[in-house]
Amino acid sequence: MDEPTALHFSADPADLDVDRVHRWLSEQSYWARGRSRATQDAVIAGSRNFGVYDTATGAQLGYARVITDGVTFGWLADVFVEPDARGRGVGVALVQGVTEAIEPLGLKRFALFTADAQGLYERFGFRPLPDPAGWMMRPGSGFGADVHD
Prior knowledge:
- The protein is α+β, with helices and mostly antiparallel strands.
- Helix content is 26%, strand content 22%.
- It has four helices and five strands.
- The chain has helices at 18-28, 37-45, 90-102, 118-122, and strands at 7-10, 48-54, 60-68, 73-81, 109-112.
- The protein has a five-stranded mixed β-sheet.
- It is globular and about 45 Å long.
């Protein structure tokens, strides 16, 4: 049996492997498939970015970003774990690190959308919307390619 991978969480954008993040999201995610590199670079620049890394190799194993005003609202987006690293606690380390980094802001609302990982997020206090009928969305001109951006 393989030894568990020692993981390191970082909120330092200098640690990001932006090529790897773009490849993951544009080629392997269901929500950002086909996202251009220019768009990816822009979302990184406009967000608080987080990663989980293999301590031994330094390889990035997971990525997430938060779009926030830093005071009242935050949106957790683009949470992705390297397929070969899934099941090794990377997602847990990533969401735990993000929530701990954002908690001191005291945001009134911290939201996300997931099609398949509700159980993970519930472990960190996320719940279904109590009144989803009150939420609305206005699709932008790029609606379709990056539906969940």
